[in-house]
Write a structure and sequence with these properties.
single chain; 21 strands
């Protein structure tokens, strides 16, 4: 009898059990070997034993006769095998222990993923699948005998190993990625040679010799894995930080450079800059740099472990993604999201405008992960901002085990005004401009002639304003995540064109930070009352004047999560505590103190320490506005309806993401992936078109 691991499916032949186990073991050890330089010899040996043991045993229960009968069906097996195949392996690996690292990885490599460890160990049958236990108790030895007759003997499991939560996630990534890759028939693929030194040479050739900041970055000695840099934004800063990261990546033999951005709408701009400056002759850009706009996986089929949408690899040398997406992946307990994390060790991470895309409640746990990556996994991190903001000075970050970042080079600036001496910040009298309705606000900004940027608090509010401004005959551009990538590119190209014309009278309307790749400054800035951070961030790209405003408008909505920041900003405006070098840090300390007093931060950190994976995933993601994927492209939508395989590189340019809260307002379906109907999208407002029309009626 030929024992199978997988039945025929989607044109692929049945996969023998022996071939699958050998393939997964080969894949998993290769994944570990690529992390070897980040590990001590003892840790490498420990993880080698854990992963090899888990890989060899992970499908042991498939040797059950009923499972084999199902797997031999030519039409393909059911969504779930008759007997849960993980239970036999868990029984074998656990022995008389309540926890064992190999057993936990086998348990978690399919749905539901990593559990709350203390709760699971306290269960009547820890890590077991009760419906399969009777079969495992009766036949486990038989399955072991069959396995060892076909393959090598199963090694004895380790005694309980107390791995950190992050280590568990990374090791699960090794196993899950190996299982997925072998099941799909993919052969092991080596990452492209990063060629850091050649990229640094090319970057230096293309950056102006007059760039003092770039030259300083090239000469700065990096001795600490955590570094911060405070300087005005723009391409000069970005290229300087890239040069610093490239030098360290070459010296430390790092595998990746990962760029984290506060908003996913900025990804396209950064990708353009990287392709212009770092792609070498005869290279395929898609093999060197990936932009990840969307979460790691979407489950469109009923089978919880199927992947109709295949993910973008983290294997390429350079990755660009939002900071929320990066840390949301780290917080996950699901193998469908975690199975790229084994690529993360030995990476350089540029956290651009760091910490503005996360909520104060999330930042302490994110900082814990950053420290563990730096201390245990050979990661190097650059924190960058145009505003003096040392969040790590807040009491909640005073952990003796956590590193404090060092300055990239000594900062000569004494206060915020030294960064942007030419900007007139119109809050001297402690007053906020208030308008009765959108029309009066539009009439007011029309009195300002030149390039203007208006930043609103969310995509819908910005879209309503942009739509009304266009109807009033104004020259306006709208930029947000509600636009397809191709339309974002068109907007960026138009912005470049208009910024070069000093006489152009026009307005960019957006709902987030915006400066990447833009040469020059806007003459005027208008910021809807939101937070001190957003106000100061906007100041970095304004040449003349900047205003804060509120509008009494029934069509505008305010996110509940923003109300604390708004109230804090109001108080600071009244007290005139705005532009000192300590202002933003003080505002964050206040916000984080409130979060800590509410026990949110404390509970998150404790859950991570106790390896309560389900709680961490749930609580961390609660602070990220939940978004829904909306497929706009008709061709991709049809493939999704038919549940055909869709590559994420097909899906990203064919879809947008919108907050679930906004979709509920307009009674859209409440699925994880929505297929837009014809006419719900246009190239100016994107998916906000339908919502704006509903609000205008």
């Amino acid at each position: 009898m030929i024992y199978l691991a997988h039945s025929p499916k989607n044109g692929r032949p049945a996969q023998p059990y022996t071939k699958h186990i050998q393939g997964v073991t080969q894949h998993v050890l290769m994944n570990l070997d690529r992390m070897k330089q980040a590990l001590s010899e003892q840790r490498y040996q420990d993880y080698y034993h854990i992963l090899k043991c888990a890989a060899l045993a992970h499908d042991l229960g498939k040797l059950n006769q009923s499972n084999q009968e199902e797997l031999h069906k030519m039409e393909g097996h059911l969504e779930a095998l008759p007997i849960e195949h993980r239970d036999a392996a868990v029984k074998l690996l656990l022995g008389d222990q309540k926890e064992n690292s190999e057993a936990t990885l086998v348990y978690a490599h399919h749905y539901p993923g990593l559990p709350n460890m203390l709760a699971e160990k306290a269960a009547k049958y820890p890590f077991r699948f009760q419906a399969a236990m009777k079969d495992s108790e009766a036949h486990c030895e038989q399955y072991v005998a069959i396995h060892e007759a076909l393959l090598e003997p199963l090694p004895a499991p380790t005694q309980t190993t107390h791995l950190s939560a992050l280590t568990y996630r990374i090791l699960l990534s090794c196993l899950a990625a190996a299982d997925y890759a072998d099941s799909s028939g993919n052969k092991p693929v080596n990452s492209p040679d990063p060629r850091w030194n050649l990229r640094l040479q090319q970057l230096s050739e293309r950056v102006s010799d007059e760039s003092v900041f770039y030259q300083n970055c090239c000469q700065a000695e990096i001795s600490s894995p955590l570094v911060y840099c405070e300087t005005p934004p723009g391409m000069e800063r970005f290229y300087g930080l890239l040069s610093s990261a490239l030098r360290v990546a070459e010296k430390q033999k790092l595998r990746h450079i990962i760029i984290l951005l506060p908003y996913s709408s900025l990804i396209n701009s950064v990708l353009n800059l990287i392709q212009q400056m770092l792609i070498l002759d005869k290279e395929n850009p898609d093999e060197i740099v990936n932009g990840i706009y969307l979460p790691t996986e979407f489950k469109l089929a009923s089978d919880k472990d199927s992947k109709n949408i295949t993910s973008i690899s983290w294997r390429v040398p350079i990755l660009v993604m939002s900071e929320a997406l990066f840390f949301e992946t780290l917080a996950s307990n699901h193998p469908n999201e975690l199975y790229k994390l084994h690529q993360l060790p030995s990476s350089a991470i540029i956290w651009e405008k760091g910490y503005f895309g996360l909520h104060a409640k999330q930042l302490p746990l994110a900082w814990r992960w950053v420290n563990e990556l730096a201390q245990d996994w050979n990661c190097w991190l650059w924190l960058t901002s145009e505003i003096p903001f040392h969040f790590w000075e807040a009491p909640v970050f005073q952990n003796t085990k956590w590193l404090k970042p060092s300055a990239l080079f000594p900062c000569e600036h004494k206060d915020f005004t030294a960064f942007f001496p030419n900007v007139k910040l119109n809050l001297e009298k402690g007053e906020i401009l208030h308008f009765q309705g959108l029309t009066s606000w539009i009439n007011w900004i029309c009195s300002y002639r030149g390039s203007k940027i208006a930043v609103f608090n969310n995509e819908l509010t910005a879209a309503i304003a942009a739509d009304q401004m266009r109807k009033n005959g104004m020259n306006v551009q709208y930029y947000s995540n509600a636009l397809l990538i191709k339309d974002q590119k068109k907007v960026i190209a138009e912005i470049h064109k208009r910024m070069k014309s000093k006489r152009a009278d026009w307005t960019l309307v957006t709902c987030g930070d915006f400066d990447f790749g833009i040469e020059g400054l806007f003459q005027y800035g208008f910021c809807q009352l939101h937070s001190l951070a957003s106000y100061l961030q906007l100041s970095s790209i304004i040449k003349q004047e900047q205003w804060v405003f509120t509008i009494a408008e029934d069509r505008f909505v305010t996110d509940a999560k923003d109300r604390v920041d708004i109230e804090d900003f109001k108080q600071r405006i009244k007290s005139q505590c705005l532009i000192s070098s300590e202002a933003l840090t003080e505002a964050f300390v206040s916000s984080s103190k409130k979060a800590y007093e509410d026990k949110i931060v404390k509970n998150l950190l404790k859950a991570e320490q106790l390896r309560a994976f389900v709680d961490v995933e749930k609580q961390f993601k609660q602070e990220i506005p939940e978004q829904i994927l909306v497929v706009v492209n008709a061709k991709i939508a049809e493939k999704s309806k038919l549940q055909q395989t869709v590559k994420l590189k097909e899906l990203q340019p064919a879809s947008v993401r919108v907050q679930r809260r906004l979709l509920k307002l307009y009674h859209w379906s409440d699925e994880e992936v929505i297929l837009a109907e014809e006419g719900q999208y246009d190239s100016f407002l994107g998916l906000m078109k339908t919502m704006v029309q509903a609000e205008t009626k």
